[in-house]
Protein backbone atom coordinates (compact mmCIF):
# COMPACT_ATOMS: atom_id res chain seq x y z
CA UNK A 1 0.00 0.00 0.00
CA UNK A 2 1.18 3.62 -0.52
CA UNK A 3 3.09 5.10 2.39
CA UNK A 4 0.84 7.07 4.72
CA UNK A 5 2.27 9.88 6.81
CA UNK A 6 0.94 10.23 10.36
CA UNK A 7 -2.02 7.84 10.26
CA UNK A 8 -4.57 8.45 13.00
CA UNK A 9 -7.03 6.00 14.47
CA UNK A 10 -10.45 7.15 15.66
CA UNK A 11 -11.66 4.21 17.76
CA UNK A 12 -15.09 4.33 19.34
CA UNK A 13 -16.41 2.48 22.36
CA UNK A 14 -18.23 -0.74 21.53
CA UNK A 15 -20.18 -3.39 23.33
CA UNK A 16 -20.03 -7.12 23.89
CA UNK A 17 -22.78 -9.61 24.68
CA UNK A 18 -22.71 -13.32 25.42
CA UNK A 19 -22.68 -14.11 21.71
CA UNK A 20 -21.09 -11.21 19.84
CA UNK A 21 -19.00 -8.06 19.91
CA UNK A 22 -19.52 -4.78 18.06
CA UNK A 23 -16.96 -2.01 17.54
CA UNK A 24 -16.76 0.82 15.01
CA UNK A 25 -14.04 3.29 14.14
CA UNK A 26 -12.18 5.06 11.38
CA UNK A 27 -8.60 5.15 10.12
CA UNK A 28 -7.62 8.55 8.70
CA UNK A 29 -4.67 10.67 7.72
CA UNK A 30 -3.77 13.15 10.46
CA UNK A 31 -6.46 15.83 10.61
CA UNK A 32 -4.76 18.10 13.17
CA UNK A 33 -7.87 18.50 15.30
CA UNK A 34 -6.81 20.40 18.40
CA UNK A 35 -7.86 19.28 21.86
CA UNK A 36 -10.78 21.42 22.99
CA UNK A 37 -10.63 23.85 25.89
CA UNK A 38 -13.12 26.18 27.54
CA UNK A 39 -11.16 29.15 26.17
CA UNK A 40 -11.42 28.18 22.49
CA UNK A 41 -12.80 30.87 20.21
CA UNK A 42 -15.67 30.38 17.77
CA UNK A 43 -13.17 30.42 14.91
CA UNK A 44 -11.06 27.70 16.53
CA UNK A 45 -14.17 25.55 16.93
CA UNK A 46 -15.19 26.12 13.30
CA UNK A 47 -11.69 25.21 12.12
CA UNK A 48 -11.77 21.98 14.15
CA UNK A 49 -15.15 21.02 12.67
CA UNK A 50 -13.74 21.53 9.19
CA UNK A 51 -10.77 19.30 10.00
CA UNK A 52 -13.10 16.56 11.24
CA UNK A 53 -15.14 16.45 8.03
CA UNK A 54 -12.58 17.33 5.37
CA UNK A 55 -10.19 14.51 6.04
CA UNK A 56 -8.93 11.60 3.98
CA UNK A 57 -9.76 8.10 5.17
CA UNK A 58 -7.20 5.34 4.71
CA UNK A 59 -8.97 2.70 2.65
CA UNK A 60 -8.67 -1.08 2.38
CA UNK A 61 -6.22 -1.44 5.25
CA UNK A 62 -5.96 -4.65 7.27
CA UNK A 63 -6.54 -4.32 10.99
CA UNK A 64 -6.41 -6.64 14.00
CA UNK A 65 -8.86 -6.36 16.89
CA UNK A 66 -7.68 -8.10 20.04
CA UNK A 67 -10.25 -8.55 22.77
CA UNK A 68 -11.17 -11.16 25.40
CA UNK A 69 -8.35 -13.45 24.26
CA UNK A 70 -9.47 -13.36 20.61
CA UNK A 71 -7.85 -11.89 17.52
CA UNK A 72 -10.29 -10.62 14.88
CA UNK A 73 -9.13 -9.46 11.44
CA UNK A 74 -10.94 -6.72 9.48
CA UNK A 75 -10.42 -4.13 6.73
CA UNK A 76 -11.32 -0.48 6.40
CA UNK A 77 -13.77 0.62 3.70
CA UNK A 78 -13.28 3.21 0.94
CA UNK A 79 -13.51 6.08 3.47
CA UNK A 80 -11.42 4.45 6.18
CA UNK A 81 -14.38 3.33 8.31
CA UNK A 82 -14.52 -0.12 9.86
CA UNK A 83 -17.36 -1.97 11.54
CA UNK A 84 -16.50 -5.08 13.52
CA UNK A 85 -19.43 -7.42 14.13
CA UNK A 86 -18.04 -10.72 15.38
CA UNK A 87 -19.99 -13.74 16.61
CA UNK A 88 -18.41 -15.93 19.28
CA UNK A 89 -18.34 -19.71 18.85
CA UNK A 90 -19.08 -20.16 22.55
CA UNK A 91 -20.97 -17.83 24.90
CA UNK A 92 -18.93 -15.26 26.81
CA UNK A 93 -19.60 -14.48 30.47
CA UNK A 94 -17.79 -11.53 32.06
CA UNK A 95 -17.65 -10.15 35.58
CA UNK A 96 -16.93 -6.49 34.83
CA UNK A 97 -18.98 -4.01 32.86
CA UNK A 98 -16.14 -2.35 30.94
CA UNK A 99 -13.36 -4.34 29.25
CA UNK A 100 -10.14 -3.55 27.42
CA UNK A 101 -9.22 -4.05 23.78
CA UNK A 102 -6.28 -3.57 21.41
CA UNK A 103 -6.35 -2.43 17.78
CA UNK A 104 -3.40 -2.82 15.43
CA UNK A 105 -2.72 -1.94 11.80
CA UNK A 106 0.49 -3.87 11.02
CA UNK A 107 1.11 -2.28 7.60
CA UNK A 108 1.14 1.17 9.22
CA UNK A 109 2.93 0.11 12.40
CA UNK A 110 0.01 1.63 14.32
CA UNK A 111 -1.16 0.28 17.67
CA UNK A 112 -3.94 1.44 20.00
CA UNK A 113 -5.10 0.37 23.46
CA UNK A 114 -8.37 1.21 25.19
CA UNK A 115 -8.67 0.19 28.83
CA UNK A 116 -12.44 0.69 29.08
CA UNK A 117 -13.42 0.13 25.49
CA UNK A 118 -16.27 -2.38 25.29
CA UNK A 119 -19.37 -2.47 27.46
CA UNK A 120 -20.76 -5.76 28.76
CA UNK A 121 -24.30 -5.68 30.20
CA UNK A 122 -23.95 -7.55 33.48
CA UNK A 123 -26.48 -10.22 34.34
CA UNK A 124 -27.67 -8.41 37.47
CA UNK A 125 -28.58 -5.24 35.56
CA UNK A 126 -32.23 -4.25 35.96
CA UNK A 127 -32.53 -2.89 32.42
CA UNK A 128 -30.74 -1.27 29.47
CA UNK A 129 -31.33 2.30 28.34
CA UNK A 130 -31.23 3.48 24.73
CA UNK A 131 -31.15 7.27 24.54
CA UNK A 132 -31.18 9.79 21.74
CA UNK A 133 -28.72 12.70 22.06
CA UNK A 134 -29.82 15.87 20.21
CA UNK A 135 -32.57 17.71 22.15
CA UNK A 136 -32.90 14.70 24.45
CA UNK A 137 -29.76 15.33 26.49
CA UNK A 138 -27.96 17.98 24.39
CA UNK A 139 -29.56 21.32 23.51
CA UNK A 140 -29.44 21.27 19.69
CA UNK A 141 -32.55 22.98 18.22
CA UNK A 142 -33.06 20.20 15.66
CA UNK A 143 -36.33 21.73 14.41
CA UNK A 144 -34.53 24.93 13.42
CA UNK A 145 -31.95 23.71 10.92
CA UNK A 146 -30.07 27.02 10.90
CA UNK A 147 -29.66 27.02 14.69
CA UNK A 148 -28.79 23.32 14.61
CA UNK A 149 -25.95 23.87 12.15
CA UNK A 150 -24.68 26.96 13.97
CA UNK A 151 -24.63 25.21 17.33
CA UNK A 152 -22.89 22.21 15.80
CA UNK A 153 -20.03 24.19 14.28
CA UNK A 154 -19.41 27.06 16.72
CA UNK A 155 -19.56 25.09 19.98
CA UNK A 156 -17.10 22.58 21.35
CA UNK A 157 -17.65 20.08 24.16
CA UNK A 158 -17.15 22.82 26.77
CA UNK A 159 -19.65 25.28 25.33
CA UNK A 160 -22.37 22.81 24.41
CA UNK A 161 -25.29 22.86 26.86
CA UNK A 162 -27.04 19.84 28.27
CA UNK A 163 -30.79 19.69 28.73
CA UNK A 164 -31.49 20.66 32.33
CA UNK A 165 -31.52 17.76 34.77
CA UNK A 166 -30.28 15.11 32.35
CA UNK A 167 -26.91 14.25 33.93
CA UNK A 168 -28.42 13.70 37.38
CA UNK A 169 -31.33 11.71 35.93
CA UNK A 170 -29.18 9.48 33.72
CA UNK A 171 -26.86 8.67 36.61
CA UNK A 172 -29.93 7.69 38.61
CA UNK A 173 -31.00 5.42 35.75
CA UNK A 174 -27.55 3.84 35.62
CA UNK A 175 -27.75 3.03 39.34
CA UNK A 176 -31.36 1.83 39.15
CA UNK A 177 -33.33 0.98 42.23
CA UNK A 178 -30.67 -1.16 43.88
CA UNK A 179 -27.44 0.51 42.79
CA UNK A 180 -26.92 -1.82 39.83
CA UNK A 181 -24.80 -1.02 36.78
CA UNK A 182 -27.52 -0.50 34.18
CA UNK A 183 -25.96 0.02 30.71
CA UNK A 184 -26.79 3.11 28.66
CA UNK A 185 -26.43 3.35 24.89
CA UNK A 186 -26.40 6.81 23.30
CA UNK A 187 -27.71 6.51 19.71
CA UNK A 188 -27.99 9.44 17.32
CA UNK A 189 -28.32 10.44 13.66
CA UNK A 190 -25.40 12.80 14.23
CA UNK A 191 -22.47 11.85 11.98
CA UNK A 192 -19.59 9.78 13.32
CA UNK A 193 -17.28 12.75 12.68
CA UNK A 194 -18.78 14.32 15.82
CA UNK A 195 -17.83 11.38 18.05
CA UNK A 196 -14.97 12.94 20.00
CA UNK A 197 -16.98 16.10 20.73
CA UNK A 198 -19.90 14.09 22.10
CA UNK A 199 -17.64 11.80 24.12
CA UNK A 200 -16.01 14.86 25.70
CA UNK A 201 -19.42 16.46 26.30
CA UNK A 202 -20.66 13.40 28.19
CA UNK A 203 -17.50 13.23 30.28
CA UNK A 204 -17.42 16.96 31.10
CA UNK A 205 -21.06 16.88 32.19
CA UNK A 206 -20.67 13.71 34.26
CA UNK A 207 -23.01 11.48 32.27
CA UNK A 208 -22.69 7.74 32.86
CA UNK A 209 -20.27 6.15 30.43
CA UNK A 210 -21.85 4.29 27.54
CA UNK A 211 -21.25 3.47 23.87
CA UNK A 212 -21.96 6.44 21.58
CA UNK A 213 -23.35 4.99 18.35
CA UNK A 214 -23.55 7.47 15.50
CA UNK A 215 -24.47 7.63 11.83
CA UNK A 216 -21.98 6.60 9.15
CA UNK A 217 -22.63 9.06 6.32
CA UNK A 218 -20.83 6.68 3.98
CA UNK A 219 -23.67 4.15 4.45
CA UNK A 220 -26.65 6.45 3.87
CA UNK A 221 -27.13 5.05 0.36
CA UNK A 222 -27.76 1.58 1.82
CA UNK A 223 -30.96 2.83 3.45
CA UNK A 224 -32.29 5.19 0.78
CA UNK A 225 -35.00 2.75 -0.36
CA UNK A 226 -36.22 2.02 3.17
CA UNK A 227 -38.91 4.00 5.02
CA UNK A 228 -37.33 6.80 7.06
CA UNK A 229 -38.41 5.14 10.27
CA UNK A 230 -36.18 2.17 9.36
CA UNK A 231 -33.03 4.18 8.61
CA UNK A 232 -29.63 3.90 10.22
CA UNK A 233 -30.75 4.83 13.73
CA UNK A 234 -33.43 2.14 13.73
CA UNK A 235 -30.92 -0.40 12.41
CA UNK A 236 -28.42 0.41 15.17
CA UNK A 237 -31.08 0.03 17.87
CA UNK A 238 -32.44 -3.17 16.35
CA UNK A 239 -28.94 -4.64 16.42
CA UNK A 240 -28.62 -3.80 20.13
CA UNK A 241 -31.87 -5.66 20.81
CA UNK A 242 -30.72 -8.66 18.75
CA UNK A 243 -27.32 -8.73 20.45
CA UNK A 244 -28.71 -8.39 23.99
CA UNK A 245 -31.86 -10.54 24.02
CA UNK A 246 -34.29 -10.84 26.92
CA UNK A 247 -33.05 -7.67 28.68
CA UNK A 248 -35.72 -5.08 29.59
CA UNK A 249 -35.23 -1.75 27.78
CA UNK A 250 -36.12 1.88 28.44
CA UNK A 251 -36.09 4.10 25.32
CA UNK A 252 -35.70 7.87 25.69
CA UNK A 253 -35.97 10.45 22.91
CA UNK A 254 -37.63 13.71 21.95
CA UNK A 255 -40.36 15.16 19.73
CA UNK A 256 -38.17 17.01 17.22
CA UNK A 257 -37.79 14.18 14.71
CA UNK A 258 -38.85 10.53 14.52
CA UNK A 259 -37.86 9.06 17.89
CA UNK A 260 -41.43 8.14 18.87
CA UNK A 261 -42.07 6.28 15.61
CA UNK A 262 -38.67 4.54 15.65
CA UNK A 263 -39.09 3.42 19.24
CA UNK A 264 -42.68 2.26 18.69
CA UNK A 265 -41.55 0.29 15.65
CA UNK A 266 -38.91 -1.37 17.82
CA UNK A 267 -41.58 -2.08 20.45
CA UNK A 268 -43.77 -3.73 17.81
CA UNK A 269 -40.93 -6.13 17.07
CA UNK A 270 -39.74 -6.60 20.66
CA UNK A 271 -42.89 -6.18 22.78
CA UNK A 272 -41.54 -8.17 25.74
CA UNK A 273 -38.24 -6.30 25.93
CA UNK A 274 -39.49 -2.70 25.61
CA UNK A 275 -40.91 -1.64 28.98
CA UNK A 276 -41.07 2.15 28.65
CA UNK A 277 -40.78 4.74 25.87
CA UNK A 278 -40.26 8.33 27.05
CA UNK A 279 -40.41 11.23 24.60
CA UNK A 280 -39.44 14.73 25.69
CA UNK A 281 -41.70 17.50 24.36
CA UNK A 282 -39.19 20.06 23.16
CA UNK A 283 -41.43 22.78 21.74
CA UNK A 284 -43.92 24.55 24.00
CA UNK A 285 -46.48 24.09 21.21
CA UNK A 286 -46.10 20.30 21.21
CA UNK A 287 -49.31 18.69 22.41
CA UNK A 288 -49.06 15.12 23.72
CA UNK A 289 -52.68 14.27 22.88
CA UNK A 290 -52.36 15.43 19.28
CA UNK A 291 -49.00 13.67 18.84
CA UNK A 292 -50.47 10.40 20.14
CA UNK A 293 -53.29 10.62 17.62
CA UNK A 294 -50.70 10.40 14.83
CA UNK A 295 -49.33 7.20 16.39
CA UNK A 296 -52.59 5.31 16.96
CA UNK A 297 -51.69 2.60 14.44
CA UNK A 298 -48.97 1.25 16.76
CA UNK A 299 -50.15 -1.55 19.05
CA UNK A 300 -47.56 -0.71 21.72
CA UNK A 301 -48.67 2.90 22.11
CA UNK A 302 -49.56 2.36 25.78
CA UNK A 303 -45.83 2.14 26.57
CA UNK A 304 -45.26 5.70 25.34
CA UNK A 305 -45.20 8.63 27.78
CA UNK A 306 -44.54 12.24 26.81
CA UNK A 307 -42.80 14.54 29.29
CA UNK A 308 -41.42 18.08 29.40
CA UNK A 309 -39.18 18.08 32.46
CA UNK A 310 -36.78 15.43 33.75
CA UNK A 311 -37.99 15.99 37.32
CA UNK A 312 -41.42 14.94 36.08
CA UNK A 313 -39.92 11.78 34.55
CA UNK A 314 -37.92 11.09 37.70
CA UNK A 315 -41.08 11.22 39.81
CA UNK A 316 -42.83 8.82 37.44
CA UNK A 317 -40.03 6.23 37.57
CA UNK A 318 -39.84 6.45 41.35
CA UNK A 319 -43.59 5.81 41.47
CA UNK A 320 -43.17 2.86 39.10
CA UNK A 321 -40.37 1.45 41.28
CA UNK A 322 -37.78 1.67 38.50
CA UNK A 323 -35.37 3.98 40.36
Proportion of helical residues: 25-40%
Molecular shape: globular
CATH topology of the largest domain: Rossmann fold
Structural class: alpha/beta
Q: Figure out the total of helices.
A: 8
Task: Tell me the radius of gyration.
Answer: 20 Å
Low-confidence stretches: none
Assigned CATH architecture of the largest domain: 3-Layer(aba) Sandwich
Keywords:
single chain; 323 residues; alpha/beta; Immunoglobulin-like; Rossmann fold; 2 domains; eight-stranded mixed sheet; six-stranded parallel sheet; 8 helices; globular
Nutshell version of this structure?
With 323 residues, this protein is an alpha/beta fold. It has 8 helices and 14 strands.
SSE blueprint:
Elements (H helix, E strand, L loop, with lengths): L6 E5 L2 E3 L3 E10 L12 H12 L8 E6 L2 E6 L5 E7 L10 E8 L4 E10 L8 E4 L13 H10 L11 H10 L8 E8 L3 H10 L7 E4 L16 H12 L5 E6 L4 H11 L4 E7 L7 H6 L10 E4 L2 H11 L3
Parallel strand pairs: 2-8, 9-10, 9-12, 10-11, 12-13, 13-14
Antiparallel strand pairs: 1-3, 2-3, 3-6, 4-5, 4-7, 7-8
Amino acid sequence: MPKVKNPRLLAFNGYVSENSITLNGRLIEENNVKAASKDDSVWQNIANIGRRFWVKGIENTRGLFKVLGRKIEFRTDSKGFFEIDYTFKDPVFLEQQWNEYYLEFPELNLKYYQQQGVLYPLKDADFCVVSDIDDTVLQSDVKNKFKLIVKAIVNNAYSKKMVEGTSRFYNKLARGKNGKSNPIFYVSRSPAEMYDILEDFFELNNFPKGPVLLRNLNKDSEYKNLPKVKGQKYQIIKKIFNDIPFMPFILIGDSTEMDAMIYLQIAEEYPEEVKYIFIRLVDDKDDATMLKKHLESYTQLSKLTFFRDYNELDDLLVKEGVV
